[in-house]
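Suppose a colleague, Dr. K., hands you the sequence of a protein chain of 193 amino acids and asks what its three-dimensional shape might be. Before reaching for any lab equipment, you can write down a predicted structure in token form. Begin with the sequence itself:
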Amino acid sequence: MAAQFFSSLADNALLVAAIALLMQADAPSWLTPYLKFFFVISYVLLAPYVGAFADRLPKGQVMFLANGVKIFGCVLMLWGVDPLVAYAVVGLGAAAYSPAKYGILTEYLPHRQLVLANGWIEGLTVASIILGTMITAMAASGGVSTFVVMSGRSKFSSFEDTVRLMRSPPSSVPNTIEVTVSPSIQPFATTSL
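The predicted structure, expressed as tokens, is then:
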């Protein structure tokens, strides 16, 4: 879950960095919404293929490769490649990463814990989107390269977490998650799925 958090955090920080690069280059303001378009179009175009790709390889390996593509997009931005192109490359990596981040749960958790784990992944994704945007906005005084370097560091954190995950066999990962339920909602909570 840490890999997912850092990966999503970096994606959103990199979006703000790409926006800043467009502003720095005095690009027309209508280009800014196209950054997200170029990122999302990868999901649309690759949807029929990334699931099959993620099913053919171990999920940790897919996450590793996808993060490598995202890091390459970050490097492209540092090299001065058009932010639309660089962020589109990040979108390619994100599209490949997406099915693996959910598929890996089935490799490490029993079926009764999948709903809870999916909830945690979704919650961490939302938190990373908000946090990535806030941190990058606060770092704005450091210049655009600070954004990109910060995004790259977060990508490497995700990369490191994925490598650690790949090295640990599924049986060595604890298959329990401890959850405390608030007394006010306890009557509505269920212990079995």
